[in-house]
Design goal:
single chain, about 230 residues, alpha+beta, Glutamine Phosphoribosylpyrophosphate, subunit 1, domain 1, 5-stranded antiparallel beta sheet, 6 helices, 12 strands
Length: about 230
């Protein structure tokens, strides 16, 4: 690890001199990050674990989703420094737009800004989920490290993707209620934490509605499922 690199340590990374290329590549997305649209809202769910190469748990209480807009939130996946800088930049752009135009930026425009920043900026190895609500409805996007922007009814990024997608494919339906969205997203994170060693230690939920963003964390996933 290069201690002079402002983008280290990464969530899930190990020093390059002690890890093979396959290990380093898989470690760079060590997390589970989910966005689900419902009839009128968005639910974003992530695990709470930071690990080194999926082998050593370095932190059990990481908040991997933050509000970036009055009615939008973004997950933190990959390089810690890069993701934090990226979130600050997107949040600043949204506030500047509203100050200049007198109205909030649309979620589609926010996604485009985020995509452009990743394509041209110094935000190394991040793969976030963006979710938000505006007058056109609820939206979730996955943004790849090269700036590719993909919108869908539900999206997943991170090393727990394949386990979470199985749950979402089986349980997602059009026009879900908000409560059903919370339950399905939480179950998807739970499935990932059962098999992916880089995901675990509970769940953080971001509820995005027309009234704003509510972010809350739970050490015990069952607490969320019982109240959903």
């Amino acid at each position: 690890m290069n201690i002079s690199d402002p983008y280290e340590p990464e969530i899930g990374t190990v020093p390059e001199e002690t890890a093979g290329s396959d290990e380093v590549q898989s470690a760079k997305t060590g997390t589970t990050s989910i966005g689900v649209t419902t009839a009128e809202t968005v639910v974003i769910a992530t695990d709470r674990r930071a690990s080194l190469g999926g082998r050593v748990v370095s932190n059990k209480n990481v908040t991997k989703v933050e509000q970036v807009h009055d009615r939008a939130a973004l997950t933190m996946v990959g390089s810690v420094g890069g993701a934090q800088s990226f979130i600050r930049s997107i949040r600043s752009e949204a506030k500047l737009y509203e100050a200049r135009r007198g109205k909030p930026m649309s979620i589609d425009a926010l996604g485009t800004v985020a995509s452009n920043f990743l394509r041209g900026g110094p935000f190394f190895m991040i793969n976030p989920v963006l979710g938000g609500v505006d007058e056109t409805g609820s939206h979730v996007y996955s943004i790849d490290p090269m700036g590719g922007l993909s919108e869908d009814d539900y999206v997943v990024t991170g090393s727990g993707m394949q386990f979470a997608l199985g749950v979402l494919e089986q349980e997602y339906e059009d026009d879900l209620t908000h409560e059903d969205g919370i339950e399905i997203a939480t179950r998807a994170v739970e499935s990932a934490t059962e098999r992916d060693t880089a995901s675990g230690n509970g769940v953080t939920i971001a509820e995005v509605t027309e009234d704003g963003v509510d972010i809350h964390s739970h050490e015990d996933i069952d607490d969320v499922l019982e109240s959903a």
